[in-house]
């Protein structure tokens, strides 16, 4: 097993990752493998790097959504591994050429928003290509002519890996290429690649891998590239318990990237089946960040048995991300789970709740 800590890029961590923060990562690379593929709305360079000399071409891009930074950290860890001289790294580099765009949306990254500076979701601009970032990626795709695409994203803490009390720490998708969601040869290749990565992850985080919804949208980049006949894999970096900085999830994305590259390099896709892919449970939406059970014991305005479901809103303050709790649901929340649970019939949980003034005030102010 590859030890992630050996290759973890120390200069970037936590949730807030901007273009300036990865300058040092780019500076550590040979200049001849770094390129500028375009400019953002605010004229910030969008940079790429390429590794390997093999015939199998893989294109990957991260932080298309500026507030989804976990995969950006992971691609730099991957770059460190691939440049380490490790025997597997050399196998991958000998068989693959890997083009990486670590940050497609630098303006959105700086503002910590999903959208770009024109308030456009780049993952809904694949058809119209109205934005400079979308155009830059499409030109790179057309020029590089990849055999595989890795579309790297992050997902919220609400997702479960199926209808069970397991967070979707990593989720994957082989996007649809038409409204009928046909299982095309292109989708099959992506499904088998996902199955390979899932087999590895199940040894590390059993039951914590989900399958993302495959509803078709021709404006989404993954669906668009799949329509072009290029097997495309959506990666979603999700929640690992008590890991709101997404450093543990970073590790599992890193290991998934290496496993995916290994599978392509070794030509071992056919060791896996579409059945292996569909055995991955579909994402549920069953988690709150905080679940306050029997909250009427604290707030007498609530009905007996009422629970309060709270999720965190991510707010950029002083170059860090603050998690602000917000009430989402009140009522009978049977069947839902919390990453943290306060049972208001338990004296220890009541004391724990009272020790968190912001959370206690929120519970006391809750109304049906």
TrEMBL record:
Cited InterPro entries: Peptidase_M14
UniProt-listed Enzyme Commission number(s): 3.4.17.-
Active site location: 236 (proton donor/acceptor)
Keywords for this protein: Carboxypeptidase, Hydrolase, Protease
Domain called Peptidase M14: residue spans: 3-264
MF annotations from Gene Ontology: carboxypeptidase activity
Domain of life: Bacteria
SUPFAM superfamilies attached to this UniProt entry: Zn-dependent exopeptidases
Pfam families documented for this protein: Peptidase_M14 (PF00246)
Family in the record: Belongs to the peptidase M14 family.
Protein name: M14 metallopeptidase family protein
Taxonomic classification: Bacteria, Pseudomonadati, Bacteroidota, Flavobacteriia, Flavobacteriales
